[in-house]
Each structure stands twice: as C-alpha cells, then as structure tokens.
C-alpha cells in the first residue's frame, strides 16, 4: 500500500562526486541505459516512467490507438495499464520539462498542468510515494538512487487536487468523456444481459429435468 512521505532535501554534489556516482551507476547498469558526464558538468541519462492515468488522454486522432471516442481531429482514449516509457534527459531537465516531454512523445494535447510526476521507493517493506515539485531534477534522483527501479521508480498520474476539477477540461474533452462512458455503459449492459440469459437457460434446463415425466 502506498503511503505519503515528506520530500527529502536536495543534496548538492561536487563535480568529482558526480563523476564517482556516475561511474558507480554505470557499473551497476544491466540494461545498457548508462549515464554520460559532459565536460561542462552536465550529465545525461535515461529514466523510465510508468503511466498510471485513470482518465482518458486527448491526442491527435491519427495517433490514437485502443478504446476511444472521436471529436473532429482529436481523440480521447485510455492508455494501456502498466504502460512504461523511457526518456533520455539531462541533469538540467526539471520535472515539468519531463512531463511535457512525455506528453509530446505520446502526442497528448492535454494541458501539462493536469499531470504530476511521483517518485516511488521501497523502504522497510513499505512503498513510499511522493509527488515531486516542478523544479526537481529526475535524473539527479535516478543517479543518487542507482539504476534499480525497485529502489526508485517514476510514475505519471493525474494531478491530484482533491476532487476532479472538470472546469479545467475543454468542451470537446468533456464530450469525449461522455461518449466513452456511454460506450462503457452499453458494454457492461450487454455483459449483464448475456450473464443472466445464460443463468436463465440453466434454470429452465434444470426445471425441465425435474418435471420431465418418467
């Protein structure tokens, strides 16, 4: 079960400390996604972000896949559960820039302010989840934690503000949501009808066996 944890203070590393950590990081990498230190002290590397989105996203219809509803040139659809994306970023990239890059990679037209990036880590048999501020640097967090995703992983979710702020969505987005809900409702109704029809057939078959003369 996820629990909230206070944000840890940022510890600034010297150029030599960064170099040592990158060497240690690269020696532990098993998927070839290593970090590179540039002469100016900026380093680049990869992070993996799991998409945990409960609401549909809006994309250009030509790029869409899966369960969707159309509106002009845009489509609202649900991302597959457990979808993970890999980004190549630098140590100067902020959380806000990472979110924007993820949305751009998926051709998402939604406002980046609707989303938040979380870090998830395991300590003492507990899973701690903490929302990152827009100014934090994900690659620094990856470097400090090491390459093992069970020690630290990143998750993209809808920005939690208590209840859903529907006024933040455009009219086409809301119309698409309604179409998706209508489609899901009809699908669930068909499933229920088939289930009860099968149950009714079994009951009638059983009754026929009981009252059959013999």
TrEMBL record:
Keywords: Cytoplasm, Cytoskeleton, Metal-binding, Microtubule, Phosphoprotein, Zinc, Zinc-finger
GO molecular function, one term: zinc ion binding
One GO term describing the cellular component: cytoplasm
Domain Ras-associating: 71-161
Pfam families in the cross-refs: Nore1-SARAH (PF16517), RA (PF00788)
Cell compartments where the protein resides: Cytoplasm, Cytoskeleton
Example GO biological process: signal transduction
Name the record gives this protein: RASF3 protein
Annotated organism of origin: Dromas ardeola
Gene field: Rassf3
């Amino acid at each position: 079960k996820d629990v909230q944890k206070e944000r840890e203070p940022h510890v600034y590393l010297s150029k030599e400390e960064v170099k040592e950590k990158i060497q240690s990081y690269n020696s532990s990498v098993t998927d070839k996604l290593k970090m590179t230190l540039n002469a100016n002290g900026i380093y680049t590397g990869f992070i993996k972000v799991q998409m945990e989105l409960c609401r549909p996203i809006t994309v250009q219809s030509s790029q869409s896949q899966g369960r969707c509803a159309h509106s002009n040139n845009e489509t609202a659809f649900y991302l597959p559960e457990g979808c993970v994306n890999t980004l190549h970023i630098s140590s100067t990239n902020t959380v806000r820039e990472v979110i924007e890059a993820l949305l751009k990679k998926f051709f998402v037209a939604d406002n980046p302010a609707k989303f938040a990036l979380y870090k998830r880590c395991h300590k003492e048999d507990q899973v701690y989840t903490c929302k990152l501020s827009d100014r934090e640097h994900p690659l620094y967090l990856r470097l400090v934690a090491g390459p093992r995703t069970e020690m630290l992983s990143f998750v993209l979710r809808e920005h939690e503000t208590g209840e859903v702020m529907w006024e933040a969505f455009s009219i086409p987005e809301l119309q698409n949501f309604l179409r998706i809900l209508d489609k899901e409702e009809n699908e669930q109704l068909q499933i229920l009808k088939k289930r009860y029809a099968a149950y009714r057939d079994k009951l009638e078959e059983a009754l026929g066996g009981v009252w059959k003369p013999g």
